Amino acid sequence: GRVAIVVDSAASLPADTAEREGLFVVPMQLAVGDETYLDGRDLKPTAFYRMLRDMTDLPKSAAPSPASFLETFRSAAKGAAAIFCLTVSSRFSSSHDSARTAVREAEGAVQHTEIAVVDSGSAAGGEGLIALEAWRAAQLGESLDGVVAAAEAVIPKVSLLAYVDTLHYL
Fold first, then answer.
1. pLDDT in the model for residue 167
2. Cα 86 from Cα 24, distance rounded (Å)
């Protein structure tokens, strides 16, 4: 039984990394003015940062909805016996709660597929490193329990350090 990896776009995986087989990215929502974009799909990071320079009102982000996670779980389940879902830290976003809600909804919609949801305790590159370790374990044929264990072994070793050029956006 192959294990698929689902991660929210807060993991900031590079585009070529996010296209790996068995790795599924659920986009965060970015509200810019009256427009709402799906992170990485409708709006690439470089375009977002270009827009950010000219904005008078700061953008807002929102966690993926449970429906977005459920849709991704359905896609992942087509080629996997189990799904490992990693989310941005629950201290930063409600993404973890959305994923857990989607798991409850998936019980009838994604049958015969076990789903584990893990809080990364991190964001951005830190979350991405944990996701890649889980993906590596899955590619090596680990069971869902093995993938969870691999990710959980890395979580305490990952620290997120952020550096900003300006305090303007904070």
1. 66
2. 10
Q: For 50-71, what is each residue's pLDDT tens digit?
A: 777 777 777 788 889 999 999 9
- 35 token code pair: 């427009």
Helix (H, G, I), strand (E, B) or coil at 45: helix
Q: What is the DSSP letter of 65?
A: P
Task: Give the pLDDT band (50/70/90) at residue 48.
Answer: confident
pTM (two decimals) = 0.85
Taking only the tens place, the pLDDT of each residue in 80-136 is: 999 999 999 889 899 999 999 999 888 877 778 899 999 998 888 889 999 999 999
- Phi, then psi, of 89 in degrees rounded to 5: -50, 135
What's the CA gap between 90 and 54, in Å, rounded? 30
Pick the closest to residue 43 from 75, 9, 68 (CA basis): 9
Q: Are 123 and 10 a contacting pair, CB within 8 Å? A: yes
Label residue 106 exposed, middle or buried (CB < 10 Å: 0-12, 13-18, 19+).
buried
State the residue for tokens 């929502």: 29
Q: Which residues pair with 36 in a beta bridge?
A: 31
For residue 23 the two structure tokens come to 């790795």
Diameter of the chain measured on Cα atoms: 50
